[in-house]
Write a structure and sequence with these properties.
CATH topology of the largest domain in chain A: Rossmann fold
CATH architecture of the largest domain in chain A: 3-Layer(aba) Sandwich
Radius of gyration of chain B: 21 Å
CATH class of the largest domain in chain A: Alpha Beta
Radius of gyration of chain A: 23 Å
Shape of chain B: globular
Distance between the termini of chain B: 49 Å
Low-confidence stretches of chain B: none
Mean pLDDT of chain A: 85
Largest interface: A-B, 29 and 28 residues
Helix content of chain A: 25-40%
Largest sheet of chain B: none
Strand order of the largest sheet of chain A: 5-6-7-3-8-9
Shape of chain A: elongated
Number of helices of chain B: 13
CATH superfamily of the largest domain in chain A: P-loop containing nucleotide triphosphate hydrolases
Number of helices of chain A: 11
Number of strands of chain A: 13
Order of helices and strands of chain A: EEEHEHEHHHEHEHEEHEHEEHEH
Number of domains of chain A: 2
Strand content of chain A: 25-35%
Mean pLDDT of chain B: 89
Order of helices and strands of chain B: HHHHHHHHHHHHH
Oligomer: heterodimer
Amino acid sequence: MNDQIIFEDVSKFYGEVLGVNRISLTIPPGITTLVGPNGSGKTTLMNLMTGLVQPSNGRISVLGHAPVNSPDLFRILGYCAQFDSFPRGINGWDFIFDSLMLHGMNEAQAFQMTAEALDRVELGNAAGRKIAGYSKGMRQKVRLAQAIAHHPRVLVLDEPLNGLDPMARAESIALFQELGRQGMHLLISSHILDEVDRISDRVILITGGYLVAEGSIRQVRQEVREKPMQVLIRCDRPEVLAARMFSVNHCVEARLHADGQGVFLRTGDIDQFYSMLNGIAAEGLVKIESVAPADDDASAIYQYLIGSGGGAS
Amino acid sequence: MMMDAVNTFLKNLAQQPWGLWWIQARRLVRIEVRRNLFSWKAGWVYFLAFIPTFIIFFHFVFEYHHPSWLSDDTNVLASVIQLYYIRLGVFFGCLGIFSRLIRGEMIERSLHFYLLSPVRRELLLLCKFVAGSLSAVLLFGSATIADFALMYAGFGAAGRDYVFNGPGLGQLEAYLAIIVLACLGYGAIFLLLSMIFRNPTPAAMMLLGWEAINPVLPSLLQKLSVASYLRHLMPVSVSAQGILALLTVETEPVSAWAATLGLLVLIAAVLFYSCYRIRTLEIRYTTE
């Protein structure tokens, strides 16, 4: 159990304001994304697991460490918080070098690891400049470099893609994927749901301080039984297929694909739907090229479970 | 039984990572001293420390120094130390330096970088206190030495004789000890106030009032004051007139060692409580 992050019935109240309520979670290694609207409790959850706030109730364990004044935990944890602020007057190099020195490293070791972290986020050339003069994307990068510089086993990233241009975003995602493959715990909050899909092993949906769902995206989607699932079927005669599905009462909505070479069908019973589709394919009425779920992505699940127009943050 | 407990305590103490703490402490103090002394925001602390030096420099350059006025200037210097540095200069200088250490970083939203580093929070707080004290002592201590040197330099041979063959150096030592204790005492209190209050200035103003009326308070309450301890360490008694007499009066004679020890106990108690506070400190920048 010591390679997991565990929340046991954790609540946090700020006075009378609810931060999170009765959250129980077990997070294995890999990339986990926290999704929820503003004020849903994502940052509170991250602050709780890094000890920046203490739970009102419940217990948290991060790889066997309780996050309360625990130097041992901070040796294996990096947190890139959302606060866009830095110690006054500091440059990029000193920001990372000083933090490594506080790990008790000698200067040569800290020097080498600072250079490595800055290279990893491609900020080596700007290291000597004051952070106050950095662009928003550069500040985001230097925070990320500081969080990964000591080679943590757990990396917590609060909106790490904010302010990055498309190229830097792609580079960061590649870096997260690489760190995830290395067996690291990555907990990322993001409102860029398309990218959540690409990088996450699992998602945690949270709203109003309550945990709505958790698990792999497909797992979570299958749990949302009351919402008809949408399937995209690529075929030569999409209108005929849609009519047939309606006639056997296994379809609640049909929408032609923009290119006319496919149809989106919604069904309340996915198992029956697939067996009917097999029958139609066997009849030879339409020539089916491919079948793929069209709404088992984070954006769709977010809309189903949290209910806004996809404006997660 | 008692010996076992003591042995266990000593064993636990020996097992602590002292080497690591020493490395971390050195780094933390270095970072903090750099930020305390070399930033634009430190400008007004320099101003508070060196404004009397500036005035005494003009006195040295432009005024005639008759040897018979030496005792007058000695009294003036004692008044500068007791009425300006202790009551105002060090007080507001320490307010600026020490309230920035924790609260200032919360306002600037940078404290979490420290709290996320593998440093015990108590060590962090004590290092910040040491760094603040070093900065304050460096500024106000060097200002006191400069004031002293300039005050007696104008008297030529009589001044040199007073300093090196008379009570001069002893007085300077006492002034420096008072400045160090004042920096430690006010520093510890302002560090704590800045953790308790979002804006420590109103509380500091109340403390200023408390320090002013302290001599007329009952003996027990007088022990809860920095200036009351320092008054007993003054090598030259200042005979202030009118309302200022309230700031210099000695209601109850206390020996120098008792005053020093009393103040150190007060500082230790304040720091102990500050360590307790920082253990449970939460980062909620949105409420700053």
